[in-house]
Design a protein that fits this description.
The chain is of the alpha+beta class. The chain has 11 helices and 13 strands. The strands form 3 sheets. Strands 8, 9, 10, 11, 12 and 13 form a 6-stranded antiparallel β-sheet that branches. A 4-stranded antiparallel β-sheet has the order 4-7-5-6. Strands 2-1-3 form a 3-stranded parallel β-sheet, with helices on both faces. The chain is globular. Bound molecules: adenosine-5'-diphosphate (ADP) and magnesium ion (MG). Residues 111, 142, 149-151, 154, 180-183, 187, 217, 262, 264, 275-276 line the site of adenosine-5'-diphosphate (ADP).
């Protein structure tokens, strides 16, 4: 039996998803006989961690703080082992702009993009560069904030007149935004789980909108509007390619424990592009990593046990 603190909730816009992930993790840990302390990651986080003195922290926080390295940094300072990736991997993955530059430099396929800060628009006249960008990326252009998840702040601009409002929406989430080439095709998620023999890619999940309006992708996140197919119906060759790409990305970013890599499969040419890396993917009843694990014959309780097994302190000596 181990005393485990489950960190959930927090200040992020994905707070509610995190509360559901956390609650499910707590149940799984209790069924395994662990002593579980649930902690909502707020102003008292450090104090509560000191008081409860857990042996391990299970980070079930999504988005800001929990996925961007902030909480991980605190856990390093407190010398508490924690699940998932270390600080530096979280920092690299949580910032989509940084992640895309790293992938581009490493030769990992990711959709073409340009990134701007709010100050570039306000103080350097970046707005005048938009026509050149629009010409290079071609419409529709995907406009998204550098951080966030669950499709928050993402807009598909179909024409030049859609761009300003899409930028305003993205800037309301983050002071850095991406303008990205739209990939027409299929939405795939590859989960990676690290075992004692190293990271393994799990069966691929395809998110398929039930309706044919590909631009209204926010609707995909509404219950019932998206079908999740696992394993995705792909040729062995494509499955192998997607698995290899996800493992390459997991290693490049220095991820630990588990992660979910979101890809687009372009059609009809069959090219794969990495959109982003989630270091704390959802763990709710409807989340993709648990579905992928299930398809690989790994129950939710077993999945959580394996993630807990890999918990660590990542810092090299200071
Ligand atoms: N460049 C793109 N081309 C086509 N679809 C995209 C593109 N970028 C994002 N999307 C759609 O938006 C969803 C969310 O985008 P993603 O970059 O994974 O951000 P997040 O999941 O953090 O909100 C994707 O799963 C995909 O359906
Ligand atoms: Mg995503």
């Amino acid at each position: 039996m181990t005393r485990v603190a489950v960190l959930k909730g927090g200040r992020s816009l994905e707070r509610q998803v995190s509360r559901r992930s956390g609650a499910r993790v707590e149940d799984a840990l209790e069924r395994r006989g662990h002593e579980v302390v649930a902690i909502d990651a707020g102003a008292e986080l450090v104090e509560l961690l000191r008081e409860t003195a857990p042996e391990i922290c299970f980070v079930a926080l999504h988005g800001r703080d929990g996925e961007d390295g902030t909480v991980q940094e605190l856990l390093e300072i407190l010398a508490l082992p924690y699940t998932g990736s270390g600080v530096s991997a979280c920092v690299r993955c949580a910032d989509k702009v940084l992640a895309k530059y790293l992938m581009r430099d490493a030769g990992i396929p990711t959709p073409d993009f340009y990134a701007f800060s709010e100050t570039a628009f306000q103080e350097l006249g970046a707005g005048s560069a938009l026509p050149a960008i629009e010409e290079r990326l071609a419409y529709p252009i995907v406009v998204k904030p550098a951080s966030q998840g669950s499709a928050l702040g993402i807009k598909f601009a179909r024409t030049a007149s859609d761009v300003p409002s899409a930028l305003v929406a993205a800037f309301s989430y983050d002071s850095k935004v991406l303008l990205e080439r739209h990939v027409a095709g299929r939405d795939l998620a590859v989960s990676v789980l690290e075992g004692s023999d190293g990271p393994v890619a799990l069966p691929i999940v395809e998110a398929r909108p039930r309706e044919e309006d590909f631009y209204d992708f926010e609707a995909r996140y509404e219950i019932g509007r998206t079908a999740f197919i696992c394993p995705a119906e792909l040729s062995d060759e494509l499955t192998d390619r997607a698995h290899a790409l996800a493992l390459e990305v997991f290693a490049l970013f220095g991820c630990s424990g588990f992660a979910r890599i979101d890809l687009m499969l372009s059609e009809p040419d069959g090219d794969l592009f990495v959109l982003e890396i989630n270091t704390v993917p959802g763990l709710t009843e409807t989340s993709l990593l648990p579905q992928a694990a299930e398809a690989a014959g790994i129950s939710f309780d077993e999945l959580i046990a394996r993630i807990l097994d890999r918990a660590a302190i990542h810092a090299v000596a200071h």
